[in-house]
Specification:
The structure holds two protein chains of two kinds. In chain A, a hairpin with a 3-residue loop joins strand 7 and strand 8. Chain A is α+β, with helices and mostly antiparallel strands. Helix content of chain A is 61%, strand content 12%. In chain A, helix 7 crosses helix 10, helix 8 runs antiparallel to helix 9 and helix 14 packs across helix 15. Among the domains of chain A are: 165 residues, no CATH class; 105 residues, no CATH class; 100 residues. Chain B folds into two domains: 32 residues; 140 residues, Glutaredoxin. Helices cover 37% and strands 19% of the residues of chain B. In chain B, the strands form two sheets. Chain B has a five-stranded mixed sheet with strand order 5-4-3-6-7.
């Protein structure tokens, strides 16, 4: 009975989202105050019913209700509670419900925190979000119901995919979806602006905190995913350019461009059309990601069970939203031309370049992601586009961007003068490169790869350049806006990230060895000594466990345990790596196959500075959080006079 | 006005590509998951392995020379193998060519029990306990089924549970005339 309530709740929510869309959009058009007020209440109602459906599914997982097909396929009597809850979004149907739940949460937040917006505008935003919600609820209800019944009821479930049974992965999808789906808010604001034909500085000020919030979630979500892949997949890589990773990374690039172009639109009223287009792009790329993951057109380790029928449904949604909004754009954009200009060297020009480079990177990644499909469809052969392509097309736009960020942060609007700043920045740049060379030769004893020193140098330069303004202001006991501080923290994070990537790419050592108890191998000055193996038992798996002692120059460093887990129900084996973390390196041991005669294959890795990759990601997210909490976005607080134009808000 | 229509036009092209891809997937003309085996058209890897029925006896793949035969990689631990088993029994009986089972990384006693209970579709079943031969064949998951022609070359590779429809579509055409 309870699962039917879930279906019923989704059906009510479906009807309500349609009402939300009609009352919001038509009400705004007719200037009907009652309709527009009703939109806000309905938005809350949608949230309540989607929440109810979501909780019913969670309850079904907790209580092992295998009469629901989805639960039977993705849970098991022995699955620990935490993963039973995470299993709610472990496969297609449930993750779609999570998608819808998060959309309704964003809509609720917009309806709660938009009291300062004009009624018409709010109604249009909520109406647009209602339309998106309607599309995805229809998709859920008609093609992918998580409450479909199963008969006869099995006594035990088929278990959650073992690869998903991990704490980071339990948190990764909700965070990523918060980001993905959050781009719909910026999209709704853009649609509302195009419908009203009005797009002024206050529009950008309303849109910015929402966009930054979504961007922050996306940043943290991607970082969590990368961290998980590193230790759970057993290869020790942190990014694979897998189509699904790209699907999350392209909206990230587009929303990064968007938060920067929004700054220009707010401060200077420029780039208006471009900002609208980026808001549409960011959301379109999120939808595209949903399509690629769920339609089965691309092959990926993460993709859900392929189903062309569902693919056609998502494609329909994709076409409706993207074609609809881009057509609206074609109609409205000519009347939203920006006025005013700027000098070739100015904050505007730096941000324009930033946008061009980010969008170019996103476009090239899109091309690489879709190319295998194009080849396959036109029977030109099966190919896969791999890291060599993606690394190149990503590095080429990103290297100049690092320099631009460091310099551009200190540019003023309209016309930038670097009098009094140029020397310091040049000092940072030279200092960074010298420090980079010192680290390369001093700590790692070699030049590395051709870009190592540039990478280190760029990272140090960026960190120094980001800290300069906040430190100076702190020393002078001047206040600084959270937005300015957030920008500094986020850019500092990029610096950390670049240093981490340079360190790992240049100096990592990987060695696959065959070892038995008592054997030892040395990499990067660390001695790995194989101690013993034994059997271990987990809640729903059996494991072979190996113990490896690590010493450096005769001094014991640590002892690591790595497991090869054999899950009972789904018979795949998973490697659980043993990792020793230190501020300057990770040591990584992963157990491979039993080679017989007491020997095991082991993968040993030395990963210098790898932690800074994720620390950088966390820093960027933190910067986003600070920026989004800036005082002037708060209700009732007028725009702060633009006193800190130099520190600015990127 | 026209230049503002560029984004929508570009997206429509993309949408058309996706729609075309989906339609082809639905018609079974496109399978992005299909990985063409590098073995196709090449000589089938030779192997000598103990048989499941009697581990003291060795089976040499050289004895199959000159005739087409099927190699099916399976294991008692593999649910999809259980799924394809009944289809395999029917197909093997009808095809009238040798079906060689490679029991991959398995327990021999379990394998004997499995074949005893479910029926034995194989002309010969060999035990690849360490998975060395499976590596030669490029197996990355069970079940996988190969068709080797009379000239000793691999003609078809199919990953996943075999059904009579798959057999009729992918394997049978190679056997007409010569088989």
């Amino acid at each position: 009975m309870i699962p039917e309530l879930g279906t019923f709740a989704l059906l009510i929510a479906l009807v309500m989202t349609l009402l939300q869309a009609v009352l919001g959009l038509v009400g705004a058009h007719r200037q009907d105050a009652a309709w527009m007020r009703a939109t806000t209440s309905i938005t809350r109602g949608v949230f309540a019913f989607v929440l109810l459906a979501f909780l019913i599914l969670v309850h079904a997982f907790i209580t092992h209700d295998y009469s629901i097909e989805y639960v039977a396929h993705n849970s098991n009597n022995e699955l620990p509670l935490m993963y039973r809850i995470a299993a709610v979004w472990g496969a297609h149907e449930g993750s779609l419900l999570l998608w819808v739940f998060i959309l309704s949460t964003w809509s609720l937040l917009v309806s709660q925190f938009s009291k300062g917006l004009p009624d018409t505008f709010r109604a249009r935003v909520l109406g647009t979000l209602g339309l998106v919600g309607f599309g995805f609820l229809a998709f859920t209800v008609f093609t992918s119901s998580p409450f479909a019944r199963n008969f006869p009821v099995p006594t035990d479930g088929a278990d959650l995919n073992p690869i998903l049974q991990d704490p980071a992965l339990a948190a990764h999808p909700p965070m990523l979806y918060m980001g993905y789906v959050g781009t719909s808010v910026a999209f709704a604001f853009a649609v509302a602006a195009m419908l009203s034909g009005r797009m002024d500085a206050s529009w950008s000020r309303w849109t910015r905190p929402w966009t930054v919030a979504a961007w922050m979630c996306l940043t943290i979500g991607i970082t969590l995913g990368s961290w998980w892949a590193y230790y759970e997949l057993g290869w020790g890589g942190w990014w694979f350019w897998d189509p699904v990773e790209n699907a999350s990374f392209m909206p990230w690039l587009a929303s990064t461009a968007l938060i920067h172009s929004l700054a220009v639109t707010e401060k200077r009223g420029l780039f208006r059309n471009w900002t609208l287009l980026l808001a549409i792009f960011a959301f379109s790329l999120s939808l595209l990601g949903t399509f690629l993951v769920r339609s089965g057109v691309l092959v990926s380790v993460h993709s859900f069970a392929a189903d062309p029928q569902r693919g056609l449904f998502v494609l329909g949604l994709l076409l409706a939203f993207i074609v609809g909004s881009l057509t609206l754009y074609a109609i409205r954009a000519p009347s939203l031309q920006s006025e005013g200009g700027f000098a070739p060297v100015s904050r505007e020009s730096f941000l324009l370049l930033n946008n061009a480079l980010l969008v170019a990177a996103a476009g090239l990644i899109l091309l690489g992601t879709l190319w295998p499909l194009v080849m396959d469809v036109f029977e030109l052969g099966k190919i896969s586009v791999g890291p060599p392509y993606f690394n190149t097309v990503f590095l080429v736009p990103m290297l100049p961007l690092i320099a631009l960020v460091g310099v551009g942060m200190h540019a003023t609007w309209k016309r930038a003068s670097y009098a009094g700043k140029g020397r310091t920045l040049a000092g940072f740049a030279i200092g960074g490169l010298v420090l980079g060379a010192l680290v390369a030769f001093g700590c790692y004893g070699s030049y590395g790869v051709p870009l190592t020193i540039i990478g280190f140098g760029g990272g140090f330069f960026l960190m120094a350049s980001s800290l300069w303004q906040p430190v100076q202001r702190a020393l002078r006991r001047q206040t600084q806006s959270r937005a300015a501080l957030g920008m500094a923290v986020a850019h500092f994070g990029i610096g950390l990230f670049v240093i981490g990537v340079s360190g790992v790419a240049s100096y990592k050592i990987e060695k696959d060895v065959s070892m038995g108890p008592g054997d030892s191998t040395s990499i990067a000055g660390y001695d790995f000594r194989f101690l013993s193996t034994n059997d271990a038992v987990g809640p729903n798996y059996l494991a072979r466990e190996a113990h490896v002692a690590i010493s450096h120059g005769g001094q014991p460093v640590t002892e690591l345990t790595t497991q090869k887990r054999q899950f009972k129900v789904q018979s795949n084996a998973m490697t659980h790596a043993g990792i020793a973390v230190a501020w300057n390196r990770d040591l990584f041991v992963a157990l491979g196959d039993d080679l017989g005669a007491g020997k095991w294959s082991l993968r040993l890795q030395y990963k210098p500075l790898v932690r800074y990759i994720w620390l950088g990601g966390v820093c960027m997210g933190l910067g986003g959080l600070l920026a989004m909490l800036d005082r002037r976005y708060r209700r009732g607080v007028d725009a702060v006079p633009d006193t800190d134009a130099v520190a600015g808000e990127g | 006005m026209w230049r503002y229509l560029t984004p929508v036009a570009a997206f429509l092209v993309l949408g058309a590509l996706f729609a075309y891809a989906l339609v082809r997937i639905q018609d079974g003309k496109l399978d992005p998951r299909e990985i063409k085996s590098p073995l196709l058209g090449k000589a089938a890897p030779a192997f000598v392995l103990p048989t499941v029925a009697d581990t003291a006896r060795q089976f040499d793949s050289a004895s199959l020379k000159g005739h087409p035969y099927v190699v099916n990689v399976w294991g008692t631990w593999c649910p999809s193998c259980r799924e394809e088993h009944s289809a395999l029994l029917v197909i093997a009986r009808r095809a009238g060519i040798p079906f060689i089972g490679i029991d991959w990384k398995d327990d021999n006693a379990l394998a004997q029990q499995y074949l005893g209970q479910l029926g034995n579709p194989y002309t010969e079943t060999v035990a690849d306990a360490e998975g060395r031969v499976a590596i030669d064949w490029g197996v990355y998951g069970a079940p996988e089924t190969f068709l080797v022609g009379a000239d000793g070359r691999v003609l078809v590779k199919y990953a996943g549970a075999l059904t009579e429809a798959v057999w009729a579509e992918k394997f049978a055409p190679h056997l007409q005339g010569g088989g």
